């Protein structure tokens, strides 16, 4: 959600994810051209410590969250000065905005996007922090921009919790975008049209990709009605009818291993509806684990957004 300084600094080698139920962190090192997860840790948060929401503050007690972050970072061996920060999908509104012409200057692009989204923003645009990145470019030269909108004071709570733990947060992104980056960073990543289903116990996000560009994004919170199958059906119909999709080359799921019933029931339902094999996101395709010990599906779901964020940071630097 924040923008990198024009004076480039080395990317952080540690990422933190603050979710409603836990804080996770990982440290990445490089051995030649191979990214390696050198250390990782996680700790549960007390119930109610973080209540992710779009239009209200998320932490009643920031110092409490900061203490948990500090303990997690200590397990990595040392507290880094800078970290990359991942927040829940539910703190941001993501939309696709079509622009006939994209301004050359970033400031001009920001101004145009702010003007375009102000009427549909769930809070005054003056209170928002905005992130804009390119999506799919059409044959006529127009481009869909991926716009992420969050309340500045909400993001500041997450950043302040990190700062109180001794680490300054640099780039901030949502969990599903970080999972997408983990997929895209792996050799032999998906091509053509493909689908990510990122499911947690509080929200479900579907992202339709065309090669490396976002084509469709939809998030549903726990308060919404309807089942996963309902949402998959609606998304598949929209993809076929409105986006003229020819079928998904691959379907991947993330997060489901941490659900009470595990990932298998989710996988079976998706395969029956979409009639295609469904794979779990494995961050080891992009970054190996240093101890080479077989990782549980639950751990891989924790590591996926952390690895994705750190590899994105390395590419941007």
Plain-language structure description:
The chain has helices at residues 62-74, 106-117, 152-164, 175-185, 228-241, 264-274, 297-316; strands at residues 14-18, 22-31, 34-44, 82-87, 93-99, 128-137, 143-151, 168-174, 193-199, 203-210, 213-221, 250-254, 278-280, 288-289. By secondary structure, it is α/β, with parallel strands linked by helices. The chain folds into three domains: 14-90 and 151-181 and 284-316, Nucleotidyltransferase, domain 5; 91-149, Dna Ligase, domain 1 (2-Layer Sandwich); 190-281, ATPase, nucleotide binding domain (Nucleotidyltransferase, domain 5, 2-Layer Sandwich). The protein has a six-stranded mixed beta sheet with strand order 8-4-1-2-3-14, sandwiched between helices. β9 (193-199) and β10 form a beta hairpin. The two termini are 16 Å apart.
Outline:
This protein has helices at residues 62-74, 106-117, 152-164, 175-185, 228-241, 264-274, 297-316; strands at residues 14-18, 22-31, 34-44, 82-87, 93-99, 128-137, 143-151, 168-174, 193-199, 203-210, 213-221, 250-254, 278-280, 288-289. It has 317 residues and is α/β, with parallel strands linked by helices.
Q: Topology as H/E string?
A: EEEHEEHEEHEHEEEHEHEEH
Through-space gap between termini: 16 Å
CATH architecture of the largest domain: 2-Layer Sandwich
What sort of overall outline do the alpha carbons produce when their principal axes are compared? globular
User: Structural class, judged by helices and strands?
Assistant: alpha/beta
Query: Order of strands across the biggest sheet?
Result: 8-4-1-2-3-14
CATH class of the largest domain: Alpha Beta
CATH superfamily of the largest domain: ATPase, nucleotide binding domain
